[in-house]
Amino acid sequence: MPMISLCMIVKNEEKVLARCLDSVQGIADEIIIVDTGSEDSTKSIAQNYTDKIYNFQWIDDFAAARNFAFEKATMEYILWLDADDIFMEADQKKLLELKKTLDPSVDAVAMHYHLAFDAKGNVTSSLKRNRLVKRSRNFRWEGAVHECLVVGGNIFNSDIAVTHKKERADTVNRNIEIYERRLEKGEAFSPRDLYYYANELLDHQRHQEAAEYYIKFLDTKLGWYEDNIAACGKLSDIYSHLKDWDNAMKFSLQSFNYDVPRAEACCRIGFLFLNKNMVKQAAAWYQIATQLERPTDSLGFTSYACWTWLPHIQLSVCYDRMGLHQLAYEHNEKARAYIPNDERVLYNKRYFEDILKIHDIAKS
């Protein structure tokens, strides 16, 4: 059974660090904590779990800090987490089982990263990341911000999930400030930098600037295909926000240049047509979304709504406007199978049942 080093970089994580480390009890055989300048009790908390705590002088470079942490690991495999990540109990069990059965030829293990949840705790968005890597392969992190672990070889695609439970709000400006200091120094941005700087601009509601940098990123033609797809989606959303429907449609369609159609793009296009009251066209695109098979090997962002209930509830809207109430009811029921207690589908259920009852009475 392989031994695992958990490697983490932390700063002022006293509220969440114990929660994270408790979730890897019995999984990690070694815990490496690299502190980048904590001013709270983070290091004191870490001492309850490990004596391998190191200081790293912060240089506005997350990859450098993570590579430093990896260099301190001694076990066969390295697992990485952020302090506001945890393994839920079911995923702890899955990871322990994987640890017992992992083929030694595996160089990296990809895991789900659950990012957002609805009011009932159901996952609404996620992506995949390579979380467990063979130390002897010397995989390295790249990128000062939104760093990426560059891996290769035999990658095992697992169903284990890391759950992100963000608690802090005081880091909201950190990444964009790092990017802008780099720009002030005249540093050239890589395609990945352009993409993630655009993300930061969008998060800060700087829509025009974000669009400019997403387009710069796409124009390099050097981006990872998942980032290309995501950039097209974000550009479509930006232009929808700006009421520029032509560009919104253009970039939704452009996403098809990089892979087979995704449900997220089809739902965007359906929304654009519905917003212009082009109901038949909207219905056609939502129908396509319901027929697509969600890729299981993608490391990109997934909006679960687009692959499950959303196109069905939108089809119920479209068919209602077209006077096709039986079809509208059927698609609302398909949406209800995914979100049975949702107020919207329950309202629709009553609405369509009343209409169909009236029609039945009229026929009789």
| Poorly predicted ranges | none
Give the helix tally.
15
Order of helices and strands: EHEHEHEEHEEEEEHHHHHHHEHHHH
| CATH H-level homologous superfamily name of the largest domain | Spore Coat Polysaccharide Biosynthesis Protein SpsA, Chain A
**Largest sheet geometry:** 9 strands, mixed
CATH topology description of the largest domain: Spore Coat Polysaccharide Biosynthesis Protein SpsA, Chain A
Structural class of the helix and strand makeup? alpha/beta
Going by CATH, the architecture of the largest domain would be: Alpha-Beta Complex
Residue share in helices? 40-55%
Q: For the CA atoms, what is the radius of gyration?
A: 24 Å
The amount of beta strand, in percent, is: 15-25%
Q: Gap between N and C termini, in Å? A: 71 Å
> How many domains would you count in the coordinates?
3
Just give the CATH class of the largest domain.
Alpha Beta
Query: How does the overall form come out from the CA principal axes?
Result: globular
Let me know the number of strands.
Answer: 11
How does this structure look, described?
With 364 residues, the protein is α/β, with parallel strands linked by helices. The chain folds into 3 domains: 4-164, Alpha-Beta Complex (Spore Coat Polysaccharide Biosynthesis Protein SpsA, Chain A); 172-259, Alpha Horseshoe (Serine Threonine Protein Phosphatase 5, Tetratricopeptide repeat), CATH 1.25.40; 286-364, no CATH class. 48% of the residues lie in helices and 17% in strands. The protein has helices spanning 17-22, 42-46, 62-71, 89-101, 174-184, 191-203, 207-220, 225-241, 245-254, 263-275, 279-291, 304-307, 310-321, 325-338, 343-363; strands at 4-10, 30-35, 53-55, 77-80, 85-86, 108-117, 123-134, 140-142, 148-150, 155-164, 302-303. Strands 1, 2, 3, 4, 5, 6, 7, 10 and 11 form a 9-stranded mixed β-sheet that branches. A two-stranded antiparallel ribbon has the order 8-9. Helix 6 runs antiparallel to helix 7 (207-220), helix 10 packs antiparallel against helix 11 (279-291) and helix 13 (310-321) runs antiparallel to helix 14. 39% of the residues are buried. It comes from Geosporobacter ferrireducens. Residues 5-119 form the Glycosyltransferase 2-like domain. InterPro entries: Glyco_trans_2-like, Nucleotide-diphossugar_trans, TPR-like_helical_dom_sf. GO terms for molecular function: transferase activity.
